[in-house]
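User: Hi! I'm a student and our assignment asks us to look at how structure tokens line up with a sequence. Could you show me two examples?

Assistant: Happy to help. In each example below, the sequence comes first and the structure tokens follow. Example one:
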Amino acid sequence: MLSSYSAITMKIFAALSLCLLLSSSDRVWANECIQYCYNRLTTCDEYCIDGNKGGTCKMKCQIEYDKCAANRCGII
């Protein structure tokens, strides 16, 4: 009985610790995620400019950035 109680207590403690760790790093993670998507946008824009692709290409870049921010970072 005592060992199963201790195991449950340890699991709860581990879960709470993990939640605390993740919540404190949420802002850092979000910033890194947005930076990742922005870097992809910049690379895409440079491709459009270097290849003289025009406005449609840049519009596609923006759409891909929006998808990245929404799907990868959870920003709607």
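Example two works the same way, sequence first and then tokens:
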Amino acid sequence: VTNYFAPSRFNVTCDDFKYLTDHLHQNGICVILDWIPTHFKHYHFLHQCSMSLHEYDGTNLYASIASRWETIYCDFDKEETHRILFASAL
């Protein structure tokens, strides 16, 4: 996860995702989104440093410590983290 608000542009556009979801629904197939608000990637496999939540504004705004999955945990002690996660869930 590099962005909690939209699909990664490296995989699919928002319109592509909407089309796929609509097509699946029209054919009786449910879509389940896996929203994991605990950690996020700090890089993308195509780039060493991507536009992720890690250092989004040049600081360590939302991150805590690195996890064993090559991701960074969200820092739930920060009000900024609460705000962005609540906003992305709505």
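Here is something you could point out in your write-up. The longest helix spans residues 14-26.
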